[in-house]
């Protein structure tokens, strides 16, 4: 594998990790501020926060799908075998599969984008764990009315 292609893949991976981490941090911070507001409908608020967390992960996955499309179509540093990815939905599916470490195996990265997909899995695991720990802490936080 050409070292230039590998460096491009690492650079794209760093950009993706930084972008998704910043998005995730800002989103979790704002959801935490929302959760700290006194609310009479705690159950509704928790559902709203869970929907917010899911939306953040979907945005992360969408960003990765754009990274893959750019890597394949513009930089030509790899491809995805076992299928011809023609629609944005198929690219989103591949990005979700790698981000969540699901790995169905029906789509396989080839070339330097294997580096991006490997780092995507690591990044996705960390961000999913971060979301889980946030929700766990939130569920066990005393209500604002209980603290007084």
Describe it for me?
The chain is mainly alpha-helical. It has a single domain (8-139), classed as Helix Hairpins, CATH 1.10.287. Helices cover 71% and strands 5% of the residues. The chain is built from 4 helices and 2 strands, in the order ααβαβα. The chain has helices spanning 3-36, 42-73, 88-99, 113-139; strands at 78-81, 108-111. The chain has a two-stranded antiparallel sheet. The mean pLDDT is 90.
Low-confidence stretches: none
Helix-strand makeup class: mainly alpha
What CATH first level would be assigned?
Mainly Alpha
Major beta-sheet overview? 2 strands, antiparallel
When the domains are counted, the total is 1
Q: Helical proportion? A: over 70%
Can you tell me the CATH topology?
Answer: Helix Hairpins
> DSSP strand (E) fraction?
5-15%
As a whole number of angstroms, the C-alpha radius of gyration is: 18 Å
Please tag this protein with its features.
two-stranded antiparallel sheet, Helix Hairpins, single chain, 4 helices, 148 residues, mainly alpha, elongated
How do you describe this structure in short?
The chain has 148 residues and is mainly alpha-helical.
Write the layout of secondary structure elements.
Layout: H1 3-36, H2 42-73, E1 78-81, H3 88-99, E2 108-111, H4 113-139
């Amino acid at each position: 594998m050409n070292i230039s292609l590998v460096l491009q893949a690492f650079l794209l991976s760093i950009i993706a990790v930084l972008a998704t981490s910043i998005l995730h941090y800002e989103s979790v911070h704002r959801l935490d501020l929302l959760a700290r507001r006194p609310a009479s409908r705690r159950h509704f608020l928790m559902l709203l926060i869970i929907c917010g967390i899911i939306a953040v992960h979907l945005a992360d996955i969408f960003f990765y799908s754009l990274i893959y499309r750019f890597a394949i179509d513009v930089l030509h540093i790899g491809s995805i075998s076992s299928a011809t990815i023609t629609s944005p939905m198929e690219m989103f599916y591949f990005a979700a599969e790698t981000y969540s470490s699901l790995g169905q195996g029906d789509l396989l990265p080839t070339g330097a984008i294997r580096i991006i997909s490997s780092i995507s899995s690591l990044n996705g695991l960390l961000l999913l764990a971060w979301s889980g720990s946030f929700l766990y802490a939130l569920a066990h936080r005393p209500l604002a009315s209980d603290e007084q």
